[in-house]
């Protein structure tokens, strides 16, 4: 018979686990909401850059480049930690699939990098995700530098970014093309030429770099929010399971305690019998 004291110890352990799970869930929810608050200014800035780019393109009379049919380079916004259910596996699966088709991978997220390493996939670059939404611009800046360096050395290979969309049901993965740059997305904002201090080609080049930076900021922030949303969901399920286990253990404790009391009564009755 299991001693009630042993069951009580298990109940105490379960309650400690429940406290940890509750804390992880609360933290994930807070980070998810904070990331969403940062998306609005990022998208507002992205819109401003897009408008400026549309005007500069009209002034420079630059035509859209021809599409390039080869795997190219994919920036994968993955996960930094575990405890996010199957979310991390979905991203690793997608990245693995692209790698096996010949794409080179830039990985944001140590957990995703480790998962790919276990599969024998070797990304060309791996870094950790931002630990806080305020860190996203600095990370996007570093990522942009690496990306343009690789782009220069690869002779203009296609570049896309793969990330999860936390604002859609089931957080589907989105692949967004960065290069070749789709100039058709930036219609001219006005007909007269803007007053600038830079040559038209140089101005367009600078604005493209700025637009790519904002696109990376948005994707990394969305990935940050998606990871924390997945973790909040996983921790919510864990909370339910832990509470069920605690309830079952409490019932087991009551039965064991009753059996112990019955045994003690029987022993006392036997001992006192003539």
UniProtKB/TrEMBL annotation:
Subcellular location: Membrane
GO MF term set: proton-transporting ATP synthase activity, rotational mechanism
Main location: membrane
Membrane topology, from the record: Peripheral membrane protein
Transmembrane segments: none
Assigned GO CC terms: proton-transporting ATP synthase complex
Keywords linked to the UniProt accession: ATP synthesis, CF(1), Hydrogen ion transport, Ion transport, Membrane, Transport
Function: Produces ATP from ADP in the presence of a proton gradient across the membrane. The gamma chain is believed to be important in regulating ATPase activity and the flow of protons through the CF(0) complex.
Family: Belongs to the ATPase gamma chain family.
Protein name listed in UniProt: F-type H+-transporting ATPase subunit gamma
Organism: Salipiger aestuarii
């Amino acid at each position: 018979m299991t001693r009630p004291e042993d069951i009580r110890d298990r109940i105490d352990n379960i309650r400690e686990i429940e406290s940890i799970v509750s804390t992880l869930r609360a933290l994930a929810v807070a980070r998810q909401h904070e990331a969403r608050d940062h998306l609005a200014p990022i998208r507002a800035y992205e819109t401003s850059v897009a408008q400026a780019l549309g005007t500069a393109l009209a002034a420079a009379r630059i035509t859209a480049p021809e599409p390039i049919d080869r795997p190219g380079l994919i920036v994968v916004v993955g996960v930094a930690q575990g405890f996010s259910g199957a979310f991390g596996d979905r991203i690793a699966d997608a990245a693995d699939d692209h790698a096996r088709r010949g794409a080179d991978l830039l990985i944001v997220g140590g957990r995703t990098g480790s998962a790919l390493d276990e599969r024998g996939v070797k990304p060309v670059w791996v870094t950790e995700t931002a630990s806080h939404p305020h860190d996203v611009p600095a990370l996007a800046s570093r990522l942009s530098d690496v990306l343009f360096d690789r782009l220069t050395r690869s002779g203009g290979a296609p570049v896309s970014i793969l990330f999860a969309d936390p604002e859609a049901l089931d957080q589907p993965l989105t692949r967004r093309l960065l290069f070749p740059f789709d100039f058709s997305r930036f219609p001219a904002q006005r007909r007269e030429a803007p007053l600038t201090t830079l040559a038209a080609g140089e101005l367009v080049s600078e604005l493209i770099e700025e637009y790519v930076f904002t696109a990376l900021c948005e994707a990394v922030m969305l990935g940050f929010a998606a990871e924390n949303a997945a973790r909040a969901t996983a921790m919510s399920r864990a909370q339910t399971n832990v509470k069920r286990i605690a309830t079952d253990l409490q019932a087991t404790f009551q039965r064991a305690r009753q059996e112990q009391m019955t045994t003690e009564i029987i022993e006392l009755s036997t001992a006192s019998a003539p």
